Automatic annotation (TrEMBL):
Name of the protein this chain belongs to: General stress protein FMN-binding split barrel domain-containing protein
Superkingdom of origin organism: Bacteria
Record-annotated General stress protein FMN-binding split barrel domain positions: 61-144
Gene3D superfamilies to which the protein is assigned, alphabetical: Electron Transport, Fmn-binding Protein, Chain A (2.30.110.10)
SUPFAM superfamilies found in the cross-reference section: FMN-binding split barrel
InterPro entries per record: Split_barrel_FMN-bd, Stress-Dev_Protein, YdaG_split_barrel_FMN-bd
């Protein structure tokens, strides 16, 4: 499988997975994984489709979290993260690694914002507890049934 095919498979999975799993490393060097909203899911977030260029030669994604969360504490201490997407029923998985970037651009935060998140962020898009994390993948490892693939991207 060539890189273009691997990126296409990766984007397809990212667009279909119900959740994304975020892994961080705590200050005690213990790994922690938790499920987050998959903002790339085209059925759950159809208005965000234009945020993601599927023809990019890299895999970029965003997740939202609480600034006050333990995961943010871990990311501030060690920005290396892993995101994992899967469709177990289709025997497909994708692991992305790289460094978390905290998004401060209010325009991006506004584009990603959904009113249903007020349960988590009562102050809305300007709530100080509303944080967006961007990952520009450095590596990607995936599988699609019996095919596996590895990608490496330049950058951070």
């Amino acid at each position: 499988m060539n890189n273009i095919q691997a990126i296409k498979l990766s984007n397809d999975l990212m667009n279909k997975a119900d959740v994304v799993y975020l892994s961080t490393v705590t200050s005690n060097n213990a790994p922690e994984t938790r499920a987050l909203l998959n903002l790339r899911n085209v059925n759950q977030y159809p208005d965000l489709v234009n945020m993601f260029d599927e023809n990019e030669s890299s895999l970029v994604t965003y997740v939202t979290t609480n600034t006050s969360s333990s995961k943010m504490k871990s990311i501030m201490e060690n920005p290396k993260i892993c995101l994992y997407y899967c469709k177990a029923d289709e025997q497909r998985g994708l692991m992305l690694t790289g460094e978390a970037e905290i998004v401060t651009d209010m325009e991006i935060k506004k584009v990603l914002w959904h009113d249903m998140w007020k349960i988590f962020f009562p102050g809305g898009v300007t709530d100080p507890d509303y944080t967006i994390i961007r990952l520009s993948a450095v590596t990607a490892k995936g599988y699609d049934k019996i095919q596996t693939y590895n990608l490496e991207f330049k950058g951070k």
